[in-house]
Amino acid sequence: LAQAHKTVAEEVDRAPLAAAESALAQAIRLRRSVRHFLPGRVPDGTIANLIREAAWAPSPHNSQPWGFTVLADDARTRLAYAMAESLRADLARQGMSTAEIEAQASKSVTRISQAPNALLCSATADGLRLTGDPTLDSLETKMATQSLGAVLQTLFLLAAEQGIATCWMAAPMYCPETVRAVLHLPPGYEPQALILFGFAADSGRVRPRRSVEELVEFR
Ligand SMILES: Cc1cc2nc3c(=O)[nH]c(=O)nc-3n(C[C@H](O)[C@H](O)[C@H](O)COP(=O)(O)O)c2cc1C
């Protein structure tokens, strides 16, 4: 066991060296949440290719329980305004001042409308093994949601490699009914993330990471 720990520790030590060498490792470091984009759009064909390749990500029983909705301008504008309306109601319930509510709502609309491209990612029940047992089904659904992180990170890395910057927005999770209604989503779609993307105008802020010592325990 001690030897196994030593081997893992040595591999962790060697990681920075590998990071300098491998294209994948470079894409991992290059990917950042970027919130400023150049004017040009990413063509639909490129988006479809990115999604096709990202779908090699792992999922429970290979269910691939995800659905992507590429948003055209009008759909996106309708979505931005509808989500802002829902945000206003949420913030009012929290007791925020009208001025602050308006500032936040209009910031959200501007962000969503000004990004060159927007993509909604939904969790679906496709291929899930639902049994009717609430505990098991809840775990199955959680696994489906976990796999969305895998498919999206894969997509982000493939995009970063092509100079396409992405930013994950959690907003749809707060108003799933609104999103479903505005976009006429297929039955069973659970909106999870709105991805804003385009060619990067800047390289984004580098946000520090916790050290490996803090993250890892060897037992
Ligand atoms: C589940 C999830 C939800 C996020 N939601 C938002 C969001 O609503 N708005 C936003 O600007 N960034 C959002 N982000 C991006 C994070 O802020 C970002 O990944 C984090 O600060 C690390 O920065 P980096 O991606 O540039 O490395 C989200 C990221 C994840 C994984």
Rounded to an integer, what's the Rg over CA atoms? 20 Å
Mean pLDDT: 92
Residue ranges: pLDDT <50 for 5 or more in a row? none
Structural class: alpha+beta
Task: Report the biggest beta sheet as strand number plus sense, adding barrel if it closes.
Answer: 4 strands, antiparallel
- Please state roughly what percent of the residues sit in beta strands, choosing from under 5%, 5-15%, 15-25%, 25-35%, 35-45% or over 45%: 5-15%
Ligands present: flavin mononucleotide
Spatial shape: globular
Order of the strands making up the biggest sheet: 1-2-4-3
Query: Total helix count?
Result: 9
Per DSSP E runs of 2 or more residues, the count of β-strands stands at 4
Report how far the terminal alpha carbons are from each other.
9 Å
- The helicity comes to 55-70%
Order of helices and strands: HHHEHHEHEHHEH
Q: Can you tell me about this structure?
A:
The chain is α+β, with helices and mostly antiparallel strands and 219 residues long. The chain is built from nine helices and four strands. A four-stranded antiparallel β-sheet has the order 1-2-4-3, with helices on both faces. It starts with a helix and ends with a helix. It binds flavin mononucleotide (FMN). Flavin mononucleotide binds at residues 32-33, 167-171, 204, 207. The site of flavin mononucleotide (FMN) has 9 residues, from strand 3.
